[in-house]
Amino acid sequence: MRPKLVLFGDSITEESFGEGGWGASLVHLFARKADVILRGYSGYNTRWALKILDKTMNGIGGDSDAPVAVTVFFGANDASLPDQKSGFQHVPLDEYKENLRSIHAYFKKKWPSTTVIFIAPPPIDEEGRIKDLCGDDPSGQAERTNEAAGEFAKGCITVAKELNLPVIDTWSKMQEIPDWRKSTLRDGLHFTPLGNKVLFDEVVKTLKDVGLSEEKLVTDQPYYYEVDFKDPSKTFGN
């Protein structure tokens, strides 16, 4: 039975199976060795994520075939400014942290053996957000700021340390890249191919730390060159 990895998050997770996406790269890396299951919901915050947990995780696995790991990647929408266009997505920081605790508690109750990995929200390029929302009108205001995203990233990391969970600090890691605002973010929020690669590399590193390594996994079914083409039953059995 192949190990399973579940990706749970907002639009940055939902889009991750697109061309060059960090989720698609995981599917490619673990081809024939593990199943990567996408559960991404564009526009969702942690408040809404809690409402859909039972429905979205139903049927993925039970006690005997629980996922090896689940990534939880929320916060970009929670950190929307409450008095701006996306204010309906905003969740206060303290509630965001409590929601992360509740999401973790749900997974540990459902799948006690599963490793939960938190991913902190990414940085924000305010200029990119204004252009995405308002075109070339410089009078517009960003509905998200990098400062607010940083506070939510710190909150995510704080909760992860409190729960002794692995956490990926996307906010800090992406800002190590030269010209990160344009090179890693295509619209001030969502990832370019480089931004996807940054997160992919961090996820792979974290998965190795918790014991899910592509090199150590068994391949599902023999490779074609291992098949006895004169008598395939010798390879596959009757």
TrEMBL record:
Record CDD domains: Isoamyl_acetate_hydrolase_like
Q: What is this protein called?
A: SGNH hydrolase-type esterase domain-containing protein
Family membership noted in the UniProt record: Belongs to the 'GDSL' lipolytic enzyme family.
Q: Which UniProt keywords apply?
A: Hydrolase
Q: Does the record bear Hydrolase in its keywords?
A: yes
The protein's matches in Pfam families, at most eight in alphabetical order, are given as: Lipase_GDSL
Its lineage opens with: Eukaryota, Viridiplantae, Streptophyta, Embryophyta, Tracheophyta
A single GO molecular function term of this UniProt record: hydrolase activity, acting on ester bonds
Which organism was this protein described from?
Answer: Rhynchospora breviuscula
Q: Does the keyword DNA-binding apply?
A: no
